[in-house]
Fold:
Amino acid sequence: MINYPRWAIAITLIVCAWGIVFAAPNFFDEPPGFLPESQVNLGLDLQGGAHLLLEVEIDDVLKASLESIRSQVRRELRRRQPRIGYKSLKVEGNAVVIRGFKSDDIDVARERLRNIDRDAAISVSGGIFRLEFTEQAIIDRRQRAIEQSIEVVRRRVDETGVSEPTIQQQGEQRIIVQMPGIDDPERIKRLLGKTAKLTFHLVNEQASVADANRGIVPSNSMLLYENDGGQRVPYVVLREVVVSGERLVDAQATFQDGQPIVSFRFDAQGGQIFGRVTSENVGTRLAIVLDNEVVSAPNIQSPILGGSGIITGRFAVQETVDLALVLRAGALPAPLHILEERTVGPGLGADSIAAGKIASIVGFTAVVVFMIASYGLFGVMATVALVFNLALILALLSVLGATLTLPGIAGIVLTIGMAVDANVLILERIKEEARNGRSPIAAVDAGYRRALTTIIDSNLTTLIAALLLFNFGTGPIKGFAVTLSMGIVSSMFTALMLTRLLVVIWLRRKRPSKLPI
Amino acid sequence: MRLLKVVPANTTIDFVGKRKLAFGFSIILILISVGAFLTQGLNFGIDFRGGILMEIETNGPADIGALRRTLGALGLGEVKVQEFGEPTDVLIRVQQQEGDEDAQLKAITVIKEALGDVVTEYRRTEFVGPTVGAELIKAAIWAVTSALGAILVYIWFRFEWQFGVGAVIALSHDVISTIGLFAVTQLEFNLATVAAVLTIAGYSINDTVVIYDRVREELRRYKKMAIPDLLNLATNRTLSRTFLTSVTTLIALAALASLGGPIIRDFSLAMIWGVVIGTYSSIFVAVPTLLLLNLGRDAFSSGDDAEEGKEADDGSAESSAEDPKDGQGG
Structure:
C-alpha cells in the first residue's frame, strides 16, 4: 500500500493537472492566452434562446415526384404518335400504375417511358405497367429533401440576423433549430412556416369561375383562391407553370405609389421565358401564386422583357419584407411543421445560472463541513478529491463540447453529494479494519482492497443507468445524464487514485501509530 | 479533534427481524401508490400531454384573477394560471389545442396578443405538439425499463440470482412509490421527473449493491453463521456508510431544492424522497428479500428462524466477527 507505484502517481498527477488546466477557462470571461480556449457551452435554458423542432413533410416530396412522373407518362403516351391507349393511370403507394394496355404496345411504351426518371424502375406483369421508385431512390430523395430543407432553413434564419444558430438534422425527417439570445421567435416561426413555393400561371380566361365553383374545372386548369381581406376570391388558372421561384436571383421589399410591394429579378433563362410568355399573352391576367394561394393576378399590359418584375398585393410592410426574404432564401422542398418550441428569456436564464451557482456552492460547503466533521484529516483529503472531481467534470464538459443545462447543474450538485460515497466507503472500511486491531498501514491497505469491488459494482450499476438515460433520453434527461456519468467516472478516479495518493503521502511522512478517524 | 459520530460503531440492530413490519409498511406504500396512480393519475406536464406553457414576468404584482379572466375568454379550453416563485412571476398552462401543430402556434400568438403590455418578459415559452408528446412517453418508458433490465442483468452476473431479484424488487419498490408520490401530491410529472426517477433508481441500486457486496463477503467469511444473523451483520457493518452517503446527498439536494430555483424544485423534492425511500428499501426490502428467496445454504430455511436470530444476534454475531478463526479471507 505504502508503495504506490510511480506510474500511478504520474497518471494521477497528469489527470489532475489536465482537469485544472481545462476547467480554468470557465472562470474567465475571456480566457487568457496561455489557457485553452474551450469553455462549457451553456444550454439555451441557461443563456436564453429559442429551440424549435421542425418536421419536414418528406412524403410530400415523393408524392410530388410521383405526380410529375404521372403527368409525363400521360404526355409520352398520348401526345406522341402512335398514341398508346390505356384505361387508367394512377399513383399507388410508391409507384405510378398504368392499367388496360394492349399487349402489343408494351415494348413501345417501355421504350418511351424509360427515360422519364432514372430512379423509377419499370415492371410489367399481367398487363399492369408499374413505374416504381427503388428503395435506394426513396432513401436518397428523402435525404436530399431534408438536406435541402436544412439549407433553406439556415438561409432564412441567417437572413433574419440571428447570430450563431445551430441547425441540424434529427432522426429521419426532423430539424432542430437553436437560436441563442432569441426570446421571441414569432417572426422566425412565421418565416419557417412558409414553403415559399412561388409560381406564375396564366389565368384561364375561357373557363367560367362559376362552373369551377361547382366543381367543373377544365383538365388543364386548377381552381385557386386569393385571400382578399377575409374574402376568398376564386381564380381558374392554367396548371402549366410559366416560370417558378427557382429562377429568381433577387427579391427586395420596396414601395410603389406608397404601397409596399416586392420587386424581383429573374436569371437569364427565367427572364427570357417571362419575356416570351408576357409578349404572347398581352391582355391576359398573370396569376402570382405563393404556396397554392393567389397573391395577385395583374393584367399583362405590355411585354415584360427586362427580366424583372414586381409583386403587388394587399401587403403590410413587414409582409413584403418577409416575402422578399423567403423568396431570396429559396423555397422549401416540402412544407415544415413546428413540432415543439422551447423558448427561454434572458432573465430566466440568468436567474437559473445564479440559482445553480448558489445551490452548488451551498451544497458543496455543507458537504465539506460534514465530511471534515466526520473524518477529520481524511475528510480534508476527501474535500481535495471533491474539488478535483468538479474540475474534471468541468474540464470534460469543456473539452467534449457538451452542453450544460439546468438539469445538468442538478446532475453536478447530485454528484457532489454522491461523489463522496466512494471516499466514505473506503474510510468506513479503514475505520473498521483499524478497530479490528490492524496497524494503520495494514488498515488502510485492507480498506482500499476491500472497498474496491464494492465501489466498482455500485458505480458501474449507476453508470449503466446514466448511459441508458443518455441513450434514450431527450432534452433535459440527456443533459442530466451527461453530467451524472462524468461525475461517476471522475469520482471513481479521484477516490481510487487521488485520495489514495494523498493517504500514501501522509502515511509515508508521518508513519502514524494510530489513525485519526 | 473530536469527530462527529452520526452512527455509533458496532451497531447490532436486528434489521431482518423487523422484516414483517417493514414488508407491511412497504406493501401499504405500494398499495397507496398504485391506488393513487389508478384513481387520480399523474399530473402530466406538457412534455407528455402536449400543450403550451408560458412563464411571464408582469409589470408589478400579477393580478391572477384578471389574467385568468382574460385568457379564459380566448376560447382555448382549459387554462391554468398560477403564481410562480415571485409575485410578478406567473405560470400559464394551456391545454393542447384541437388540430395540428399550427393550431398550437396560433394559440401562442393569440395569448401573446391578449396579454399585451402586462408582460415585461416572456421568461419561458414551451409548446409540445401531439406527435412529440407521444414519442417522449415512449422514450421515457424505454429508458426506465431498459435501465432496470440492464441493472438486473449486471447484478445477476456479478452475484447470485437472488441478489438480482432482490435488487430489482427493491428498485421497483422505489420507482413505484416515487411515481405514487407524484400521483398523491399531483406535482407535475415531466421529462425532468423521469430523470429524477431514474436517478433514484441509480441511487437506490448503488445503495443496495454496497450492502449486497458486504453480504457476499460475509457469506464467504462465515460459513456457519445463520443467514438472518449474517444479513444483519452485513447491514450493520455498512450502516455508517449508508447513513453518511445519504446525509451528504440529502444535504446537496436540500441546497438544490431550496436555492436551485423553482424549475428544479420539484425535481429536487422527488430526489429527496427517492434518497430516503432508496435508503430504506436497501435495508428493509432488498436484504430481507434475500431471506425469502432462500439465499445460499438450503439448510437454513427462511421464515421462522428470524425470532431466534433476534435473541442470538447481540452476542454470537459480533463475537464471531471478531474471531479470526472463522475468517476465510475475501
